[in-house]
Amino acid sequence: MTAAISGTESVGVDLPYRAESVSAARRLVCVQLAVWGLDDLVEDAQVIVSELATNAAKTGCRLWMRVEIERLTEKAVQIRVTDGCRVLPVMVKADGQDEGGRGIALIHHLTGGHWGADQLPNGKTVHADLGVVA
């Protein structure tokens, strides 16, 4: 069993809607997980934040997207990306000919289904919980 963290441990950054923001989001997650001693989550976390930030960058709905990582327990984190588009993500079954459409399914797999999206007045936040035991 993992213990809950007292107080909020989180970091976030506002990034422009540009392709290079995806690598900045990956660096944020990598550095923060190292600070928390959660190196075993880095690979999956970088895939997740890459997918979420790429999806946000494609919307181009606002000037900035917000990328955050919060420590939920000693061994679990939540990655969040907020953008200015109110269209919620859906998991689709992409076939071998599709060039995209696999990101949310990949996030679903890596998180064991612990992900979701919240609609906001001016956009949405997509979150993914990593390291959560069902």
TrEMBL record:
It comes from Streptomyces tateyamensis. InterPro entries: Anti-sigma-factor_SerPK, HATPase_C_sf, HATPase_dom. Residues 16-111 form the Histidine kinase/HSP90-like ATPase domain. CDD domains: HATPase_RsbW-like. Keywords: ATP-binding, Kinase, Nucleotide-binding, Serine/threonine-protein kinase, Transferase. GO terms for molecular function: ATP binding; protein serine/threonine kinase activity. This is ATP-binding protein. The keyword Signal does not apply. It holds the Pfam family HATPase_c_2. Signal peptide: none annotated. The keyword Nucleus does not apply.
